[in-house]
Structure to design on (445 residues):
């Protein structure tokens, strides 16, 4: 019996030693003292963020738009940003409690009443091609008389007169509150629809001119992916409204045609690229890397606490820069045909050795590449919509050729294939296949 007991103790002792040795081999290389230094190219990349403290920056106003009607929206927005900056300076999360937000705004839900009156204002134009038409019907049923809505329309008009839109990324992290993007999108659509109902295509040209100019500024200057996606949404709404108005106009005057051509100038490369936004996403990871990777996973919902013990935060950032940020940056700079071809290739996991314990948790968490193709594709889709509406305008001019021949000979082409747009004579529509097949890139002639 004593021999069996001695043997059991021996087995347990050796097992404990082997287990401890194995844990040591895995855990010791992942102690904080062995983490890498931040790669110098990353430090250089992040050293010069865009300056938001410039005259005519509308970004603070976007935070203040939801405030009670008597409050100055820029002052409210600046208070938001100052509070977030203070929290970042104290090493806290740049977030605000529900009560803090209410205190800044003077309450909450001031816009719910008018928003309920015009449900079509929430319609997403990349998903539906009849948003503007449905909004016209809403306003015909319920003319604009709501006092709060009138106040918000005036605020929105002031916002879109600003000459810049640069978010203060120094006051932001993944937990930060969002600007009032929803009401901004809805107000722009309502203004366009009301202008068309009261003044026809000339009224719409006037309101769309200001809206398109502002949202193209946002598209070019916004430092976040969300900001750029909101700009794409707004611009598509403006183009859908113009396309509808063109389709309903029996004949355009030379002045109207010239004004519309000026509104439909094609997007520049700097407007399509989203590299500033990619950099902001990466910056948030770098600046919050000590906690970021605790919640980041290639397989959400299947996180292991032990995996977090095997993460070297700075080594993970350096790895992410090499295998995710740089390829994504290059991806965003491709032309539409190059992008489309590259995006068809299957996404492959980033390879790594599971026998090397150093930063094994970080390697596993970052094994899936950054999937940003849909965001880039939406920008190229918008460029295609500009061409679609430009072609629609071109087709309104009298000509001897058959419409199919005119489409084939036009310089306006599918952004991805560089071939002619698709024409359906039965539905009298022009279209091309959006990058995301769930979206719609179609207009009615």
């Amino acid at each position: 019996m004593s021999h069996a007991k001695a043997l059991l103790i021996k087995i347990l002792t050796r097992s404990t030693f082997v287990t401890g040795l194995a844990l040591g081999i895995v855990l010791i290389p992942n102690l904080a003292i062995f983490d890498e230094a931040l790669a110098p190219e990353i430090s250089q990349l992040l050293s010069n963020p865009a300056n938001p403290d410039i005259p005519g920056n509308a970004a603070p106003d976007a935070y203040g738009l939801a405030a009670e009607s008597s409050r100055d929206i820029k002052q409210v927005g600046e208070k938001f940003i100052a509070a977030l900056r203070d929290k970042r300076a104290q090493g806290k999360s740049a977030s605000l409690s529900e009560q803090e937000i209410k205190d800044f705004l003077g309450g909450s839900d001031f816009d719910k009443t008018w928003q309920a009156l015009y449900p079509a204002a929430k319609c997403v134009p990349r998903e539906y091609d009849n948003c503007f038409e449905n909004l016209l019907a809403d306003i015909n049923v319920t003319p604009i008389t709501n006092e709060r809505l009138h106040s918000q329309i005036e605020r929105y008009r002031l916002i879109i007169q600003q000459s810049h839109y640069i978010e203060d990324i120094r006051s932001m992290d993944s937990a930060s509150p969002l600007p009032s993007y929803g009401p901004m999108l809805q107000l722009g659509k309502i203004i366009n629809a009301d202008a068309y109902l009261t003044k026809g295509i000339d009224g719409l040209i006037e309101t769309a001119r200001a809206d398109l100019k502002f949202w193209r500024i946002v598209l070019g200057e916004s430092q976040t992916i969300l900001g750029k996606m909101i700009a794409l949404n707004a611009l598509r709404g403006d183009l859908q409204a113009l396309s509808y108005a063109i389709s309903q106009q029996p004949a355009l005057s030379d002045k109207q045609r010239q004004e519309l051509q000026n509104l439909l100038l094609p997007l520049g490369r700097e407007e399509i690229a989203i590299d500033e936004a990619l950099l902001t996403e990466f910056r948030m990871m770098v600046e919050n890397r000590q906690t970021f990777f605790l919640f980041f996973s290639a397989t959400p919902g299947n996180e292991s606490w032990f995996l977090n013990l095997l993460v070297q935060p700075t080594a993970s950032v350096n790895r992410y820069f090499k295998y995710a940020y740089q390829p994504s940056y290059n991806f965003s700079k491709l032309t539409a045909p190059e992008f489309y071809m590259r995006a068809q290739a299957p996404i492959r996991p980033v390879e790594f050795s599971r026998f090397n314990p150093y930063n094994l948790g970080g390697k596993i968490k970052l094994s899936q590449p950054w999937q940003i193709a849909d965001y880039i594709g939406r920008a190229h889709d918008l460029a295609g919509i500009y061409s679609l509406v430009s072609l629609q305008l071109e087709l309104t001019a009298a000509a001897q050729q058959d419409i199919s021949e005119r489409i084939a000979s036009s310089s306006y082409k599918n952004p991805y294939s560089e071939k002619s747009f698709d024409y359906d004579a039965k539905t009298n529509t022009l279209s091309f296949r959006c990058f995301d097949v769930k979206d719609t890139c179609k207009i009615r002639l």
Remarks:
- Residues 59-263 form one domain.
- The mean pLDDT is 89.
